[in-house]
Amino acid sequence: MSAPTRILLADDHALVRSGLRMILDNEPDLLVVAEAANGFDAVTALAEENTIDLVILDIAMPRMTGIQAAREITRGNYPVRILMLSMYDNEQYFFESLKAGASGYVLKSVADRDLIEACRATMRGESFLYPGAVTALVRDYLQLARQGSNLPETILTPREEEVLKLIAEGYSAREIAAELVISAKTVDRHRANILQKLGLRDRLDLTRYAIRAGLIEP
């Protein structure tokens, strides 16, 4: 059995943190190892503890908000995933969270239902968005298309685009190799080249790019 995902939980309400911790620690694959009452303390704790895998940030916190903390964590290139937690079903917060580097957005009102799956999806390199957020994301994409915004020009080869599309659709390296009749090592080499060319970090970034480039549907 693999080691549990080690979590840093940041929320300015101790009672909320206690409830969330109870939900998370009740799962064998999740473990809260650190807590913070604001974004600044979360970033500081992350700098001091190098075994954290996932940071869960409340959006509205004193001193430094969750979004500000997410930006700091992203700029610091910490090897962690970020999940935002909010009581607000707010499109601006949602989009700012994604831009700050978060992999998902969970509403506190349904945290008891969604938080566990959000953590697991995030650690798989997938995004987790509540239904209203998905609607907002699609609407924003369509609005850009109606305004005549050009899709980004690609610097990828046709083969790299094929590999990127399959990665974004969730295929494993072995499955991509079988689909394209190439070796798994060649798939890995293509993936590394794609990440380097586009200046991206992981599967989630590649999926976002594939959506913007029109390779897969949002």
Task: Give an account of the 3D structure.
Helix 3 packs parallel to helix 4, helix 7 crosses helix 9 and helix 7 crosses helix 10. The chain is α/β, with parallel strands linked by helices and about 220 residues long. Strands 2-1-3-4-5-6 form a six-stranded parallel β-sheet, with helices on both faces. The mean pLDDT is about 85. The protein starts with a strand and ends in a 6-residue tail after the last helix.
Share of helix, binned: 40-55%
Number of strands: 6
Overall average residue pLDDT = 85
Total of helices: 10
Detail the poorly predicted runs: none
Keywords: DNA-binding, Phosphoprotein, Transcription, Transcription regulation
Protein name: Response regulator
Domain Response regulatory: 6-123
Domain HTH luxR-type: 149-214
Give the tags.
transcription; NreC/VraR/RcsB-like_REC; alpha/beta; Response regulator; about 220 residues; Tscrpt_reg_LuxR_C
